[in-house]
Amino acid sequence: MTIAAEEPRIQQVVGDLNRKLLINGEWVDAASNRTFDSFNPATEEKLASVAHGEAEDITRAVRAARAAFDDDAPWRTMPHGQRGRIIHKLGDLILDHLEEFALLESLDNGKPYAVAKAADVPLAADMFHYMSGWATKIEGNTIPMSTARPEAYLGFTLREPVGVCGQIIPWNFPLLMAAWKLAPALAAGCTLILKPAEQTPLSALLLGELAMQAGLPPGVLNIVTGYGDAGAALAAHPDVDKVAFTGSTEVGKEIVQAAAGNLKKVTLELGGKSPNIVFADADLDKAIAGSAHAIFFNQGECCVAGSRLYVEESIYDQVVEGVAEQARNIKVGNGLDLTTDMGPLVSQEQFDRVSGYIASGRDDGANIIGGSRVGDRGYFVGPTILTGTREEMKAVQEEIFGPVVAAAPFNADKDILPTANNTNYGLGAGVFTRDIGKAYRTARRLRAGTVWVNTWNVFDPALPFGGYKESGWGREMGHAVFNNYMENKTVITDLS
């Protein structure tokens, strides 16, 4: 693929996209008639203008979702098998539009088109396919009672959808994060208001089109594009029963405060500063490649990025040089170029943030390998390794959310786990070793929701994902996700 050759295709895909708000099954303008622009981070050029949703639009969407959740509404009365088939069809439609989604993800987010096509879009479809099967498998229990006459009473539980859910997603995996949120909530029988990130609204709008084609009744899925004020209005809305948020820990804390008004349920998937531990007995080829992938994948814009690399002293120089060599071989460029390995950061704000952390590391005495701007247009930062770091450095303690890893050696005679766990976060972690016992013991002691052993960034819809500490509340994916979207009701009946 050449960028120039794709220009007509780009114009067609973006031009055909409906850029209004999806409310109650219809595409409508924002109440204010305002719009905002979405930009291509590789070129800094405008891609599209989309509706600027605000608090009034959130209220309209909540009202539609509430009506769609009523007891006699089609979504509530629909047989569960039919609900599952609609969700599965949406997964099929995503695959039918694989190239359009991959193009939108690359244009709007900056990530390589080839990566989006091979990973982001198929994984989003997988999520809908997997969750569609759960629509018929959410069950209660019949529970024997310990009363004086247990045969006189029937006690059982029902699992019911929590209700109207607000879902706020980030810009690093726009389509995939939408799928992680929407698919289980739909399978549970909830109705939804999706608020995509203002930096990357386009794939959510195409997803809305396909959801209607799949047969979702009006009001079941509503999409409001806009800025943080729209998300804040959604989190605080008194008629929203639950809010799910993926993003920064700072904003997550604001979501919790906003949700306090009606004590709505909250789940949060937040930041990370993931430790990656490489022992001297590791397969070094695998450890070096895995450590580079852990931090440089998706431009480092991953909440689970392996951004703290701890390597046993005897192999430290070899591993750091190996990761540096991997970094030198990464081609940074426009995501539409099929030879690109790493695209731009998502925005000027993110470019300034990452550049600031690199400068902070340099000012604190770290050695910088890489770390330069690539080109003079677009938000490109090359893969970066900080060596000679200390634990108290800002670049070691705080989430950077870019292709920057802080490396440090550790002594085999000292326990590395206290250092690895010395963070407010607990989302991801990794360990590279050939010793399965050591791997298991290390994984057990790492305070993180996901621990990878001799790999990184492997996910599956059946595996729960979430964080410890300030990395969040609750779990995405797997059967555990339904704890987020279901209420348990106990029913006790006197049979005498």
From TrEMBL:
Q: Which Gene3D superfamilies match?
A: Aldehyde Dehydrogenase, Chain A, domain 1, Aldehyde Dehydrogenase, Chain A, domain 2
Record: active site: 269
Q: Which residues form the Aldehyde dehydrogenase domain?
A: 27-491
Q: Provide the alphabetized UniProt keywords.
A: NAD, Oxidoreductase
Name the Gene Ontology molecular function terms of this record: oxidoreductase activity, acting on the aldehyde or oxo group of donors, NAD or NADP as acceptor
The UniProt similarity line reads: Belongs to the aldehyde dehydrogenase family.
Report what the protein is called.
Phenylacetaldehyde dehydrogenase
**From what organism does this protein derive?**
Saccharopolyspora spinosa
